[in-house]
Write the structure tokens for this entry.
Amino acid sequence: MVSITSKIVMCGDYAVGKTTFVQVFLGGGAENGYRATIGVDIGKKVFEIGVHKIVFQIWDLSGQQSFKMIRRQFYNRTGGAILVYDVSRRETYQNMIQWKNELFQNAEVIPIVLIANKIDLRETSEDFVSIKEGETLANSISEEIDQEIPYFEASAIQQKNISEPFRTLGKTILSRLEK
Ligand SMILES: Nc1nc2c(ncn2[C@@H]2O[C@H](COP(=O)(O)OP(=O)(O)O)[C@@H](O)[C@H]2O)c(=O)[nH]1
Ligand SMILES: [Mg+2]
């Protein structure tokens, strides 16, 4: 049995649903919590994977995100990353490339998952990003960094596929420890 703490960064454009996603994931529980600091919110959740325990320390940029100093600290010593876009706003999907580049300019090659959020809006948007496009993006990043990038369709509002991305990240982080 291992017990570790792992920093996870939430990456993606403004208003894609990162904060909502984290808040739903954190839920209640005395061990969990959310701490606001300047430019970044840090959430904490104790998560069990089989017999192992992983404490997720989730970093979520808030408000003004353009300070370089904050950005460097943001990526420092991170154990995993969650890339999030909004299926109802195509530019947030296109900007994933920039987020991925910024991540790898500042961090090692770490476990990543890709999340297509707000799938509840698919019917209402005319130019929504499809599942196929999401999978294509995940595959192209996978090939680039030679590491599988799991892809999830989620709705933070409908509480759909919230824990799974974290579970997958956690499993990958734990499996790397064994090597
Ligand atoms: N329809 C829908 N709205 C969402 C979803 N997730 C977040 N939102 C809304 O999108 C807006 C931005 O969310 P927020 O979490 O602040 O985005 P952030 O800037 O990425 O942290 C808020 O009004 C949320 O209620 C979702 O899955 N579906
Ligand atoms: Mg936010």
